[in-house]
Fold this sequence. Notes:
Layout: H1 9-23, H2 27-35, H3 37-40, E1 48-51, E2 56-59, E3 65-68, E4 73-77, H4 79-89, H5 95-120, E5 133-136, E6 140-147, E7 150-157, H6 164-176, E8 186-190, E9 195-199, E10 204-205, H7 211-215, H8 219-235, E11 237-238, E12 246-249, E13 253-256, E14 260-261, H9 274-285, H10 300-326, H11 337-354, H12 356-378, H13 381-386
Antiparallel strand pairs: 1-4, 2-3, 5-6, 6-7, 7-9, 8-9, 10-12, 11-14, 12-13
Amino acid sequence: MVETTPKSPEQVQAQIAAFTAERVEHYQDSKHIFRNLGGLALGEMQDITRTTNSTEYHRDENGDTIRLPEGTEHTVATSSEYADFLRSVGGQRYEAIQGRAEMLGEYSHFKPSIMALRTELADPEKRKGHPNFLGNGSNATVFSISEGDKKYAVRVPNGRATDPSLIDSHLAGAVLGKDVPHLEQIVAASYEDGVTVAELMPGKEIGQLTLDEIEGITDEQLGELVDTLAVASERGIEIDPKPSNFLYDSEAGYGIVDYHSSKVAGKNSKDQSFNEIIGWTAASINNTGLYDGYRTELTHEDYSHDLEFMKANLGVLERYRSVVEAKASEAAQIDLTEIDKIITTSKERVDNYSNPEWVAERIAQEQQWRRQREEDAKTPVSDTLDLM
């Protein structure tokens, strides 16, 4: 009799997660499985049901839309569907399963440091003041930790609640982006704690670059960025192209964080094409250095300050376009239309900011709008009703 080695909880979690991400289409069904992932991984996979807490619309086996009223007991997934999935992908050998299992298994090495960090973060108001603070988004805040002689970026969920489906979105992307230069490399994660651990990428968000740093961006670095975008498109990696997800270091060049997989069930969007990605990235390049905090009212000095950044960004944009065009022989059907639109808009913006009369008019308009808002705020509600 051949003895089989029992699968670890991390391996079973990885199997269920990959099945859910790729085969369970409705987001409420997917969230239900991920919320119960720990319990499901402890036993044999059985048919999973849930009761709807609102009216939902699903697709049946024929692709037709069906309505499920609130309170309907609904089958989320069956054990036979799960078994069929594992057979079809080759079980543990499947990259999406193996990659997830490796990251989940590595989490225990980092957990003591992460638990100590989370103790220090007990007061949410003090998170940004923590000495290891790196950045924050709507769902999580990122801090650095050290293990041995290496530093890592830890993504900690905001608030007490964790959403395992969000963690899996990162892991699905990380499997596709493994060992790709200039893409964030997640090395450990926990669905229960809602945490991911990634190798710390050098640099800072491009929205916070200085003028000297922007002017130091090289054609070689732009070429490496375009190559990374091409690989991302080929592998089905979905990039969220906002400036906070692009890092820049004068030596290492560009880095991309917070990316996902576009090849998951239930996503109505198609894979990002290379042309879409290069166009969206051009928009982020155009705003490099211009995220230095919210300003309630722009002054002449502010317009002069921004003008210098816009000029520098325009220069980088034009070089970025040339780099993309030079790679036309390597990537079929490159479309420069979106980049050209952004360059045209950038030139118009530079012209406007260079025109003292236009700047003076804009400042006068903003002052008028501010005074109007202040007046509106002073108007009693009863007076507003009388005017209706």
